[in-house]
Amino acid sequence: MRVARLAAALLLALSPAMTLAQSASDKVPTADDPDAKESVTSRVPLDEIRRFVAVYNAVRAAYVDPVDDKQLMQSAVRGLLLELDPHSTYFDKEDAQAFDEQATGAYEGIGVELLQQDNVLKVVSPIDDTPAARAGIRAGDLIVAIDGKPISAIEAMEPLRGVAGSKVVLTIERGDGKPFDVTVVRETIRVTSVRSKMLEPGYAYVRISTFQADTAADFQKHLNQLQAQSGGRLKGLVLDLRSNPGGLLTAAVQVADDLLDKGGIVSTRGRISISDAKFDATPGDLMKGAPVMVLVDAGSASASEVLAGALRDNQRARVIGSRTFGKGSVQTVLPLDNGDSVKLTTARYYTPSGRSIQATGILPDVELAPEPSDVNKDVPASLVDYSEASLPGHLRGDDEATASKAGVVLSGEGPVQSALRELKQPGSVASVAKAKPATAAAPAAAATAHSAAARTEPAKPEAAAPAAAKPGPITPEPSPAPAKADSPKPPVDDGK
Asked: How many CB atoms lie within 10 A of CB 59?
């Protein structure tokens, strides 16, 4: 699949209807249009808007202290988004710039994926080989203060960024213990999302830590190198997606396409019909039919769930690990004319079988669990139910009522070796698991099983870049120019 075509299709599908400001000449659906029932622009609540303006003017004119117009309006917009799901959020200019910097894979900070909740920042996962990971920050940790200031009193994300070499003190709650401080030294974060190594002759391991613009290019490069080490053909592949919080939907589609000869990959559906899309594989399986095991855990979300679901539904791979996070939604970043932007959930996605994993996740074919002695050992309280379904205000899932308890975060080499055994001898780990859970370390920072892998540097996603058709090598092109004001960027999946 040509990524340039895919990215353009996604952008084209969303641009006409998702602009945040319309001119008088813009076509607005009427009651006769098929999309009228879906349209969010067909009836503007003028009375409510007048009421808002009246309150706004009253605050400006009569509040006991002077108010800042910009802050007042930003607070109003944030209040509007509070009633939506936890992945829809407002970025001021600085936040939007930081978001874009992370998309390029180079920014100054501590290297951690976060989800803002009431008065805390929840750690989705530290990014591999970053200051946060080296400082011992774990998935599920709750950051309650930054440099001594409570989260509720500050612009939450901003203090984490800063000049490389400067320090930031995080106050963390973990489990039932008392809050403790961790000092982290900021660095320039340059992260490459793909790492690899040979597990044993003929059997390869590829770790994808996040999905970004160059992920598919790196995946192809690593796979080609591994095949060359094996005389041109691999016997099998362990694809590690543990604690992968997501990223670009297009990147996940590319990687799935690289491992599929045919079949569907993913479809998206939103309220506006032109946002509906379906993506299919094109001929050219880079593994040439060799078996694949996909390793997942509770930290595997969104784009990583897209990939796991596509490979399993097409019977191209089996899944091993723990139930995934269950984020089945797609976000679009909508720039505003003042430099601010809105990240808005615009669609749900569905696996090739037509199933939504929203708030349910993917249950592995072979389930791994911590040893009984480790189940309650040093487990952050926020990992007791580490899932989309536990987030306040989350989108309801189609099958949410049938989902069992959330999965666990698996770390270390144990799950990798279990995946390799199951890859070489299907059923071997599954039969052992019935009698005794397979070994997995207590929940910790983003999976570190690949620490001995060939070191390439890690990075964060959000902006799509074209790539060449498979199966030839992909050369990433420069990131596209910034989108024009009030036109949406390509859909992204923001992790959790």
From this structure: 13
Q: Could you count the other beta carbons within 10 Å of the beta carbon of residue 8?
A: 15
pLDDT tens for residues 57-83?
999 999 999 999 988 998 899 899 989
Query: Residue 353 is encoded by which pair of tokens?
Result: 């079988």
Ranges of each domain in the chain: 48-74, 107-190, 194-329+345-424
With CA atoms as reference, report the closest residue to 10 among 214, 271, 254, 275.
275
HEC string of 78-114? HHHHHCCCCCCEEECHHHHHHHHHHHHCEEEECCEEE
How does pLDDT run across 2-26, given as a tens digit for each residue?
Answer: 333 333 223 222 222 222 222 233 3
Q: Which of 327, 343, 460, 470 is catalytic?
A: 327
Class at the top of the CATH hierarchy for domain 194-329+345-424 = alpha beta
Let me know if 302 is a catalytic residue.
Answer: yes
35 noted as active-site residue? no
pLDDT digits (tens, 9 = 90+) for 178-191: 999 999 999 998 77
Annotated active-site residue 147? The verdict is no
Tell me which of 125, 275, 302, 322 is the catalytic residue.
Answer: 302
430/16 Cα distance (integer angstroms): 49
Structure pTM?
0.70
* Domain 107-190 = CATH 2.60.120.460: no
Tell me which of 92, 258, 313, 493 is the catalytic residue. 313
